[in-house]
Amino acid sequence: MFARDLAAAGGRCVKQPTGHLVFYRSDGRRFLATDPEGNPLHECEWGTDAIGNVVLCRARVRLDWDCWVGLKPASLVNETSLNLTSKRGWQLLKADDLRAMAAQALRVTIEDVRFFYRDEDLRIEPTGRATIRQRKDALYVLQDGGFEQARFMACMGAMNWSSLDFLPVVELFKSLLPGTGSAVFELIRGLYDDQNEGKPSARPLRYRGIPPYPSEAAFRLFSNFFTPQAPERNDPFTIFMNRERSGQVIWLPAATMPVRYFDQRAGACFTIQDNKLYKVTVASDPSGLSYASQQGRRFVPYDRSAEVVGEQVILKNRDRETTLAAPLLQGNLRETGGPVAMSPVDWRSVFVQGVPTILPAEAYGAVLLYPEDGSEIGEYSAQPFVADYIQDIGEQDREIGTVLSRAEHVFIENGDAVVATCITFDRVRDYTVLVRRPAYAQKQAQQLWSVCAELQRWDWLSHIRFVSDGETCNQGAQGSYDLVYHWVPYDSADISSSLDNRMKMISQLLRTGGHAFVIGPAQLGPQGLSKGLHICWEELVEQLPTFRMHRTILPQARLRAGLTLFHMKKV
CB atoms < 10 A from the CB of 366, how many? Predict the structure, then answer.
């Protein structure tokens, strides 16, 4: 019935060689793509702008674990004002002059600047004041699958979705929910194919960004859907990773790309590429991790492998196996079975009392989100500004570097979103982590496993302890720590007695001469002094360069008033 109604309205449905379905409006714009069973992959809502051009109003993409992410083109707009009157001949300045100044300051080409700054985005008033508007496409977490309760997640350069002409890299990429990048590029590649259908050759694309943010992860993502070509037969990856040359790499459509199949009975999503199983995601998995193909790997990430044996898919989680029937995939896959090595250490082993109970949605959704407006940034989302800063000054400041490198026993409390950043990977140290938010802590444990796997230093992982009981971890620990990281919970930051007890506890944990980085309200300083903690220095978090960098992306960003980083020493 739907197909008849669609045809009657001038639309059409196209069945792809993989069995996937794409539904088009009468004007040839896709509005829905599904897998062969009709499970939606992405949806597009089209409209017209003020001059009658067809534009993408919004879209939503489905993630492997059944969450939806929304896309709103050009919905994030930042304005900057400049006073040009001090510049000689400012009365003669035009839009291209502003573009040239921006290109010089950002070390990009003026062609790149034109992609993102239209004439209507650059306005010079007779008074000499210039207003520059920067438009960005925004990505949102759709909590109930719709836009009614959308939460801002990330952004990227505004694209011409009606005629794609470049490839973007997401800003705030660490805030992306698992699978967002692939799902968005699945949409991008679909629209790109639609727009190039019937043409003698496909339109070459380049990566563009203001400023450019090339990364290894971006290159891998692009390469799943497009094939890179570098000038003069140079290595595309090397050219791409050079910020000043990343735009020289040309991207053409890949012959094969990831294809997804949802199985509602198994509650799983299978990703296939080149007739081989690429990964399997089970929505009900409390680890928030997918199962990956073992081909070409020494160790499968987190010891979670997926292999095809006959007409079944075998999921292995170290010593545990789950068998899934995959009737949808029969005839589409080559067998991938074979021995796979298991890493010496389970990532879950860092949890002394076992991994806490975590709901699957919380596990997959354990990312840090930031408001797009002036709303206060949440407690855990504020933690990276401090942890990244301490890591940076540890590399730049000899005194702080010495504090970090000499520490043998380290205690981390309420830093569940940044544990991996607080750990120095240069030798064996003992770390004790008091967990407050298990979903974030689990994500950090997985990140620690990844670092140790890359360095092949499994012994370091065995010296990291995650505990959930403060009394247990404090028993016999008085005066035993060289370094303490302590984030004061927001819900106790205004209670004087609570702050007093916290400073007393920190003083008791530290050995004489030990150091602490404490993050909380300004009144912590006097209370620390009363407990024998000398204030080496203090800094408002909003003044840290890491937060100022964040404001270049979201200018209205706001932290809790008075949030302060203290460097203390027990005397």
Answer: 23
